[in-house]
């Protein structure tokens, strides 16, 4: 059963900014503050974007997309793909033949750089519903259009592998993340989390465990394997869990339920939150069955036991989905990162 | 690999976020060490934390703010192969052995080899001989341990979690070294503090393909 671990991509793609030459390929060096362009190309680019704020960066692409800005403002965000399809049939916009070729995400820095400071600030306030409200602000239209186009584009392409799509999504996050200056780290993370939720909820169906894919087979295979390990007892894993300790057993049961819930969530951060929640139940379970604080050995053993009992549906697909599409910062740092790392470790351990 | 400290400039002062992994065999006192450091407690009934597997500590070293995340790793032999999943992207590693237990020192040597192979020289290594309060039962000679540490480019420390000896120094020293490494890294990227404009994309959590492959390769049992 060694093939499954090999297939997990542990490569948390992140913010990668090593672009040196100008993105326009003029031969001069580019600069991150000019979105990777050299000074001259950036000025040209900006002039273009000032004359055509909404279409900047898209004009030289090839697929047809017609946008009527007035209409966009009133759109219900949750209907993005449908409305995005509708707008293609609308006319009346001056640049009715805006074309775009498999849209490299970072290709529209012009339109995004028009986002104002107060707007960026407003987008990073409050919870997700506040974010959606802020996204309807007139000055946030560029961001919304950017997201809509990106979602549309990823849904339309069929040639890309899921890994490629993951990379594009990560690139998309980092483009948006780069809008914030350094001292606004908190706001940046908040906005990125909201963007992640927005984009991934829409994309979920087109990137998660597609019907008839190999992943589906592997998931089934893995589930069968866990089922065959039903005879494993806490003692075999050297857990301090005793049948008589009702409180601890209840907590483990709560952890089991939470792990099963992972599959029902759509956004990577919500799936990740389930892993953390389950981990907290496990830590509590350890604390009621043992005097000393839980060590990594305790935690991992309990987590393995919990996974065996939960047999979470589509486990491999869920792990891959989180690693590909989650805001990478959450995966490698903080308690969420630790819990997820342990979760992946447990998964690998069971597969040995 | 650009794991060199996710440093974000906040005005004049900077905040560094470092990940440190804690490696070592089962009974060498890893947990006591880190609990002593973060909670200043040892075998205490009043330890408030539920767990000692993931702890954080905020430091201010000469005006530089450091967020330290300490990741405990499973030390049992059966979990050995899972190591790479934990120590990927870490800035520092604390390898703990028990001075009364020769085997635990051998284990540290194995970890060092593995870390150097997987992460190269970018990771700051600390080899820690714990339980110096049991000096009478010492089985690992000081000379041997220090010579070994030097030969692999690691620093060696003597600690006692029980008597609270050498622990502050260990972490402080490690943080300073990690800041240095992160600064060298930044300078190499031309991303230094002087160019505040270029530093606006300061958060770097990039991982490269070779490492991912090596992790995969290791996990295929």
From TrEMBL, chain A:
GO terms for molecular function: DNA binding; guanyl-nucleotide exchange factor activity; small GTPase binding; zinc ion binding. One of its GO terms (cellular component) is cytosol. It comes from the Eukaryota. Residues 16-50 form the A20-type domain. One of its GO terms (biological process) is vesicle-mediated transport. InterPro entries: DUF5601, VPS9, Vps9-like, VPS9_dom_sf, Znf_A20. Keywords: Metal-binding, Zinc, Zinc-finger. Pfam families: DUF5601, VPS9, zf-A20. Gene3D superfamilies: 1.10.246.120, 1.20.5.4770, VPS9 domain. Residues 216-352 form the VPS9 domain. This is Rab5 GDP GTP exchange factor-like.
From TrEMBL, chain B:
The keyword rRNA-binding does not apply. One of its GO terms (biological process) is protein transport. InterPro entries: P-loop_NTPase (IPR027417), Rab21 (IPR041833), Small_GTP-bd (IPR005225), Small_GTPase (IPR001806). GO terms for cellular component: cleavage furrow; endoplasmic reticulum membrane. Pfam families: Ras. Gene3D superfamilies: P-loop containing nucleotide triphosphate hydrolases (3.40.50.300). Keywords: GTP-binding, Lipoprotein, Membrane, Nucleotide-binding, Prenylation, Protein transport, Transport. It is a lipid-anchor. The keyword Nuclease does not apply. Signal peptide: none annotated. One of its GO terms (molecular function) is GTP binding. It is found in: Cleavage furrow; Endoplasmic reticulum membrane. Residues 185-206 are annotated as: Disordered. Belongs to the small GTPase superfamily. Rab family. This is Ras-related protein Rab-21.
């Amino acid at each position: 059963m060694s093939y499954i671990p090999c297939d997990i991509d542990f490569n948390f793609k992140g913010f990668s900014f090593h672009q040196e030459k100008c993105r326009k390929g003029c031969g001069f060096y580019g600069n991150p503050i000019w979105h990777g362009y050299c000074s001259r190309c950036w000025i040209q680019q900006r002039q273009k974007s000032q004359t055509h704020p909404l279409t900047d960066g898209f004009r030289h692409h090839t697929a047809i997309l017609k946008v009527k800005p007035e209409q966009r403002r009133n759109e219900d965000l949750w209907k993005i793909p449908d409305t995005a399809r509708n707008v293609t049939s609308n006319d009346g916009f001056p640049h009715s033949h805006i074309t775009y070729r498999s849209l490299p995400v970072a290709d529209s820095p012009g339109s995004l750089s028009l986002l104002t400071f107060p707007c960026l600030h407003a987008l990073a306030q409050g919870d997700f519903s506040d974010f959606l409200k802020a996204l309807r602000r007139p000055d946030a239209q560029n961001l919304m259009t950017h997201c809509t186009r990106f979602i549309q584009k990823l849904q339309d392409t069929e040639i890309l592998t899921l890994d490629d799509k993951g990379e594009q999504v990560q690139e998309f996050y980092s483009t948006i993340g780069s809008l914030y200056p350094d001292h606004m780290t908190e706001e940046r993370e908040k906005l990125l989390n909201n963007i992640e939720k927005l984009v991934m909820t829409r994309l979920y169906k087109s990137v998660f465990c597609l019907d008839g894919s190999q992943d589906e087979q592997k998931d089934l295979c893995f589930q069968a394997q866990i089922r065959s390990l039903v005879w494993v007892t806490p003692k075999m894993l050297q857990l301090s869990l005793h049948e008589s300790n009702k409180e601890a057993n209840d907590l483990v049961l709560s952890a089991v339920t939470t792990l099963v819930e992972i599959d029902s969530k759509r956004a990577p951060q919500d799936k990740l939150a389930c892993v953390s929640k389950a981990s907290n139940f496990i830590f509590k379970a350890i604390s009621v069955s043992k005097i000393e604080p839980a060590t990594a050995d305790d935690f991992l053993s309990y987590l393995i036991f919990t996974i065996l009992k939960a047999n979470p549906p589509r486990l491999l697909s869920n792990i891959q989905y989180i690693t590909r599409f989650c805001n990478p910062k959450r995966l490698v740092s903080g308690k969420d990162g630790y819990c997820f790392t342990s979760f992946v470790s447990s998964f690998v351990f069971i597969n040995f | 690999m650009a794991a060199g400290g996710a440093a974000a400039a906040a005005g004049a002062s900077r905040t560094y976020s470092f990940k440190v992994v804690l490696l070592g065999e089962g009974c060498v006192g890893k947990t006591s060490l880190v609990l002593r450091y973060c909670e200043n407690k040892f075998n205490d009934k009043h330890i408030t934390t539920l767990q000692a597997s993931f702890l954080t500590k905020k430091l201010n070293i000469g005006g530089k703010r450091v967020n330290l995340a300490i990741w405990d790793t499973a030390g049992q032999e059966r979990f050995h192969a899972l190591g790479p999943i934990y120590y990927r992207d870490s800035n520092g590693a604390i390898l703990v052995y028990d001075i009364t237990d020769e085997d635990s020192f051998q284990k540290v040597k194995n970890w060092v080899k593995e870390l150097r192979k997987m992460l190269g020289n970018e990771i700051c290594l600390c080899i820690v001989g714990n339980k110096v309060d049991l000096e009478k039962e010492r089985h690992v000679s000081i000379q041997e341990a220090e010579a070994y540490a030097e030969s692999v480019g690691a620093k060696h420390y003597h600690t006692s979690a029980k008597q609270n000896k050498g622990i502050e120094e260990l972490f402080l020293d490690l943080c300073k070294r990690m800041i240095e490494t992160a600064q060298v890294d930044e300078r190499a990227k031309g991303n230094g503090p002087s160019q505040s404009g270029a530093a606006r994309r300061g958060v770097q959590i990039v991982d490269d393909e070779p490492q991912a492959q090596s992790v995969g390769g290791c996990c295929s049992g």
